[in-house]
Specification:
Length: 73
């Protein structure tokens, strides 16, 4: 298990796989874009889980800061 804080400027990249990641957004805006095109946007105060096996992209729309907890088997 790993926990910490993360900050990123706008950009888009392939999401990591092989782990569960809990995220809590502190500031900014981001989105998860599933491989089927379904899009979920998040902002300050939102929390969500990126499940192990997720296929898609992570996109930072506005400089984003989050707390995270990652569980890898």
């Amino acid at each position: 298990m790993k926990a910490g804080s993360w900050v990123s400027t706008p950009g888009r990249w392939q999401a990591f796989t092989g782990r569960d990641e809990y995220c809590y957004i502190l500031r900014g805006r981001c989105a998860l874009i599933h491989e089927d095109g379904h899009r979920q946007e998040f902002g300050p105060g939102d929390s969500f889980l990126i499940p192990n096996g997720f296929r898609g992209h992570w996109e930072v729309l506005e400089t984003c800061e989050k707390h995270f907890v990652i569980f890898q088997e």
